[in-house]
């Protein structure tokens, strides 16, 4: 079994069974579907592990190889063959990179399926931070929400900021406000600190993703695309000056981004892709 601080076992299987990896940053209470929603409908005969992001305070200089190492080390230590790698939103960056690194370690390259993949830039970090704040309106006052939104807008407008530096600055603004709000809501100091650190880990996750190039892995990926214009390939194709993204195939669904991983038709399509990939790999 992998370390629970590195991989969350969504579906277990025999120790010698293959594994499907899923890259995402799930948190309790988010309004988006997750791999825990998708997995029961895939009909897998192997394990499925989901990433657990390292607990880190965001900086502009996180070592990417060091960040990825625990995930790769645990997979290697397990002795399992990675059958496929799934990625959601910004997690698709890690899916693409892990796919390339794992392909160099085993005879057959893992299949890659990504859901509304995102190349992380400053607007992506800004959007995701806004979602974090939006999910905390039960404990933040309207003035605190406004303070955080205004600070994020001001920092995002500064020329030359990198996504990693922007993420670190956002966390520096959020940390004292979030800590105060959570303690005011009655949480003890340790639990409040844990929740605030989770936001820091998410900002680090985005900052690291921004510095990675997933395009070699995406070049052989099947992309599952939602109808949300501000997500995934829809957003990238509508962004002026954005470089085209090469992929192997795309399947589009008339559902919102937040519902991709909990839509039965999506699950059926992905189950078919994974079954076909499993047969092809034998």
From TrEMBL:
Lineage of the organism: Bacteria, Bacillati, Actinomycetota, Actinomycetes, Micromonosporales
Protein name: Thioesterase domain-containing protein
Domain of life where this protein originates: Bacteria
InterPro entries registered for this protein in UniProt: AB_hydrolase_fold (IPR029058)
